[in-house]
Amino acid sequence: MEDASFLTATLSLLCLLAVSCFAYVISKRINFPYTVLLVIIGLLFVPLSKIGFLSFIDDFKLTPEVLFFVFLPVLLFEASYNINYRHLLKSWKTISSLAIFGLLLSTGIISTGLYLILPLVWLEIPFIICFMFGTLISATDPVAVLSIFKSMWAPRRLALLFEGESLFNDWTAVALFLVLLWVILEGWIITGSTYSFWIWSFLSMLFWWIAFWAITWVLFSKVIGCIKNNEEVEIVLTMLLAHLTFILAELITHLVPFLPISGVIATVIASIVIGNYGRYKITPRVEAHMQKFWEFFAFVSNSIVFILLGLILAQIDTEVLKLMPILLITIPIVMVARAVSVYIPIGLINRYKVEEKVPKSWQHLLSWGSLRWALALMMVLMIPGVGDPDYAKLLAFQESVGWAYSYNIKEFLLILTITNILFTLFVKAPTISVIMKRMGVDKLHKLEKFEHEEWKILANFKILEKLNCSYKKAYLTQYEYDELKEKYTAKLNKAVKSMKKILSGKKEDAETLIRRAISLHALGIEKQYLKDLFFYNEIDERNFKYILRKIEKQIERVECEVPQLRKISCSKGDYDFFSNLSLKAYKKKSTDMDAYIRNRARLIITRKVIKELRELSEINFGFETDIFEEVITLYSAFNKTADEKRLKILTRNKTSIMALESKLVNKSLLKLEEKVLKDMYNKEIITPKLFIKFMEEVESEMYSDVKRL
Q: Is the entire prediction scored with pTM above 0.90?
């Protein structure tokens, strides 16, 4: 029987995965949120499971344990991995006001509103129960928000506000909910110690936030630094990190109740630390696969979780019809509370210019786009149910407040929560994209339009070059060549015309826009080739990070419309404290050898920038090429300065530098050897066995100076 149960559960899981794949394809074609479609399919699966030969469909169960300890850490880690902490810190006041003050405001409005209005429909619900519901439903869920919002064209900062609030507001919600649950189970006694307990819970989570940040940074960096060039192990380590931080946080809370910690916050912090600091501890060639791995892992987790959520919702056994009046009251109250909790905090920030202004259209989206599910369900499921050790305490509380309903408190809160989840999934989620289009939030700004047309011009120009080459080699007939040339020439001319339209207007504004775009292009080339040098171990991690931070700061300045090299911050204050601290510490430890490696790298990447910009300047983009020459002149100066510094260091340390150069030249040759090997393998000149053998030899020599286990 156990074997049969395991087999049907496995078959159920595989069936759900297969269906989710088709659902994903359909959702793209009909432009409908994928996760919402999965929930609908889950709801439809329940009647199908009543058919004899399809009875296995619902055998795989989404238990709270599977949701919280298997799938949720994956979704949280993947969502946070690419968050830039510098961008996060620049909006920390807006995010924290929404995550803390906004959540408390929403909780107060919902709990007070329900407590005053429910008696009108003949329901006397204790205030603390209304307060519990207000707490758990006010926290926007990170997984729900990100899974819907991630695929939409939205400004980076707007996406960051959504992500930041959703990832951090459970800090306040969980702390408050745990206190309320503790009050109920301890006999409805509120004293000064109750408030002290909540404050302590809040501060404890703050303390552990810092502790997990430090532990993650130090331990992971040390471990990953010792296993360079072990691809499978490095990827598995990040997976273990995501789950271990979550489980460890929950374990500490369970074993040491007076030191509560949020597993969600712990995993989010671990992911942000690894995404910003740890990713360059990972072997460069592994880092290239890391993103794909986590995207795939998150896709599988999302597919299973949301389709199973539909199955769970359809199987809830509660007297829903009797609660319909409450449901009709609850949803509007929650919506009003969310709106107030967004407009008031952001309105105050905008009025007093505390941080960069949040446009009104963004505020509307923040208000409407508050989605819930996993976090709210998690908190409801914390309440003891039938068979749980503390269920007797819950019954004692119900008796003390005169609870006379056929459903218990947990069932009551569960149905309210489920209803709001359904509303956000079936009403809010599908309409977010419509609202974004109506408000024009998804429209490209001028620089993005410029870059879009620039890409089309460049792509069509390269295609025409390829067509000419193919025609000369007789790969195309005259008819095919003429037809394709006419097609892509028309596309090129159309893109050039669009570019001229974008640049129409004031000459100064057009030149500024062109200069910003070319500067960003040049900085992007710098970043790409710097990563290539790091990939092939021609620059060590410390020097790589030093130059990378410099490039990223220049990108930030250009994006903020200030000169590339002028030391002006985009906002009030420099929030890149950790970056500045590490740069200062690096300068103190920097040696002549470090300086030589940095200047050698700068010499190489600036040379690449100059070469590519010269090629681009020969293309007709619809504007004068003078600005290309300005940027090329700037990078020529960078190149000259780097070469002069390199030569000065060489004269002081000729013997050691020549030994280093010999090693670096050898790495360049190994890079060429690797490319030749891959080309031979792709052409099937060598067998897979030989390819693996040769690649292992090349990689062993390339990373011979890297410490490994």
A: no
